[in-house]
Amino acid sequence: MGKSLDVVVFGSANVEYITYVAELPKPGELVAGTHMETCFGGKGANQCVAAAKLGASTALVAKLGKDESGNGYMNHLRNQEVDVKHVEQVKDNPTGMSEIAVSDEGEQYKINVAGANAFLTAKDVTRAKKSFQAAKVLLCQLEADMNATMCAMRQFKGVSILQMSPLRKDIPAAMISLPSILVVNQEAAAHLTEMEEVQTLEQARQAAGILIEKGAKSVIITMGDQGAVYMSKRNADMCTHVPASDVPHLADSSGAGDAFLGSLAYHVARFPKLTPEHHISAANSCAAYSLGRRGTQPSFPGKEGAKNDLCFSTPTFNVIPPPSAETENEPEEGATAAPPVVEPVPAPSPEEPPAEEAVVEEEPPPPPPPPPAEEPVAEEPPPPPPPPKPEDAPKPVETSDEPPEPTEKRYTNVRDADEIEKVEKRNTEAPANKT
After folding, report:
1. Which carries the bigger pLDDT value, residue 85 or residue 337?
2. For 170-218, how does the pLDDT look when each residue is reduced to its tens digit (9 = 90+)?
3. Regarding beta strands 5-10 and 135-140, do their DSSP bridges make them parallel or antiparallel, or are they unpaired?
4. CA 235 to CA 208: how far, in whole Å?
5. Which are the contacts of 288, defined by CB distance < 8 A and separation ≥ 6?
6. Are 114 and 95 in contact (CB under 8 A)?
7. Is 96 marked as binding a ligand?
8. Gene3D superfamilies in the record, alphabetically (predicted)?
């Protein structure tokens, strides 16, 4: 191996005992397995082998037991062209093991026994100093001691990738801010951001933004069959979604995550000028390849996968719009209070012209009032009485209100002028007698 190294992995190595069943057992339930396999695994070793199978020059920093399983694992790593000079076999401690059950639908549960992995410490970082200096990419997980893992990321000067798995409750804040690329699944994203869930792309965008605020340099959230979401601190206003690759047949999901991480490290190291979306798209392709095959390391694509469009296809990705929905909702809330105002506004707009017409119609009515004023001046009722004798009409106008009544009687009951004079004399004498 030359001086240059593509990927150095600091992590675990386990022997996996995989049992295939029709359905995963419920608590206390006994189910029959269809068959059983023994494979080499552990997140650290798996991801190292995944990168090596694609053609990356790799080195593993790990612990194995000085036992038959450990000896077999060392030979297997050499066959995969992994540098094992920093893989130490520990006396009196068994090689770590994992018990995995996989259903016909590809679902699984896993139980890990750390074994020799528990002895991986910060001293091993110092012991692998030359490999750390030569490598372009450092790959870590949470199966190893967290303090040792943080020490490894602090010492490394290249691109560090941390898979936040398996999920732990006591994760230090530095675990978020130390790596160059933080990779989390939906469960880890919800846990680290204290969100209720991360199921939709919008929720993933929100979670990625929170992780960036917490100090992450860049974040990849793996979303299963939805693909992956990416956001970086340099451009936190932009979040991209890289869809998952097609999986014709789901056989086993146990190796998909490690295939994704190994491929991601390989492409970041070999093609640093490509965009993160290129790297993620290629990793999605390798994960889909693994999903269609049984086993963990046996399901990883080989060098032929790195030479064809499996890893070099043009990435398809979408930009997840910012939480404009929230900003739009705020105006909508304002609009909800405004709709009564907004609704009247459009209503008046069409009604305003008619309203103006109504005002114009009301202006003509003021002119009509003057005509009625003229009518009382030329009242028709007074003229009708005068027509019989127009000359006498002015006389009743000069008299008071009381005389009109007698005048009316005179005109209606008196036949000639003599009688009128008699009546007048009688009327004038009557008050004199009374006095």
Report:
1. 85
2. 899 999 999 999 999 999 999 999 999 999 999 999 999 999 999 999 9
3. parallel
4. 12
5. 244, 245, 246, 247, 256
6. no
7. no
8. 3.40.1190.20
Using one digit for the tens of pLDDT, what is the confidence trace for 33-59? Answer: 988 989 999 999 999 999 999 999 999
Residue found by looking up tokens 């114009």 in the block = 360
Q: Which of 258, 309, 392, 401 is catalytic?
A: 258
Q: Is 46 annotated as a binding residue?
A: yes
Q: Is the peptide bond before 365 cis (omega within 30 degrees of 0)?
A: no
- Beta strand residue intervals within 203-275, DSSP E: 218-222, 228-232, 239-242
Neighbour-count burial for 12-31, b at 16+ CB within 10 Å, e otherwise: bbbbbbbbbbeeeeeeeeee
Q: How many residues in total does the chain contain? A: 435
Q: Which of 1-5, 299-303, 357-361 shows the lowest per-residue confidence on average (mean pLDDT)? A: 357-361
For the entire predicted model, the pTM comes to 0.72
Q: Which of 53, 79, 75 is nearest to 64 (CA)?
A: 75
CATH class of 5-13+43-92+118-320: alpha beta
Place of tokens 């003021």: 366
* Cα torsion through 348, 351, 357, 361, rounded to 10: -90
42 known ligand binder: yes
- Is position 290 annotated in a ligand binding site? yes
The reply, when asked if residue 70 is annotated as ligand binding, is no
